[in-house]
Amino acid sequence: MKKLFIVLMMAFCANAQAQEIFNEIKHKAFDAVSNEQTLPIMKQINQFKLDALNYLAISMQEQMPDAPVLYLDEQALGLNNFFTAYIMQLVKMNNMPDAAQVKITKIFIDASVSNPLFNDKEEEPAHSYLNNASSITRFSLDTDWPRALAAVQAQLKD
Q1: pTM for the full model?
Q2: Which of 30, 125, 150, 151 is at 20 to 30 A from 113, Cα to Cα?
Q3: What's the rounded Cα separation, in Å, for the pair 101 and 106?
Q4: What is the DSSP letter of 61?
Q5: Can you tell me whether residue 94 is helix, strand or coil?
């Protein structure tokens, strides 16, 4: 019985540690959204991150209950890196002609839509941001973030 308890505790600790990246990114996004000093554009981006991470956790629990917990970390890190690349491109686009800005933004949007993780048939909530023309984060919540980032990097390389 004592051995079983030790094994269960070790498994619990491994799961808690495995979600460190996911939890850290979620916590930072929540702090940014909650902080009155945060710029509106950064609030939008971090609100998207929060919604995407919540969507990811719920969808994984429903559709991939046997997936390793580390998978959440991989997706959260991919999401964070996707947005780092996106923000860097937004800064670079500042002095570009409108047509170039639209082209680069479309690369990110297309990468998000073209790389679904769950193939969610329901457009709500997966496409709630995508369908909002006034949002700076017009991406699908149903995205395999590491694959989307790779797709963006390949497109920007060309």
Answers
A1: 0.85
A2: 30
A3: 8
A4: H
A5: coil
Beta strands in 5-158 (DSSP E): none
Q: Please name the residues in contact with 138: beta carbons below 8 A apart, sequence gap of 6 or more.
A: 105, 109, 129, 130, 132
- CB 24: neighbour CB atoms within 10 A? 14
What residue ranges do the domains of the chain occupy? 21-157
Query: Measured between alpha carbons, how far apart are the two ends of the chain, in Å?
Result: 60
For the record, the structure tokens of 112 come out as: 């998000």
- The predicted model gives 122-145 an average pLDDT of 91
> Which residues in 30-39 are b (16+ Cβ under 10 Å) and which e?
eebbeeeeee
Per residue in 68-81, pLDDT (tens digit) is 989 999 999 999 99
Helices (H), 67-122: 70-93, 98-114
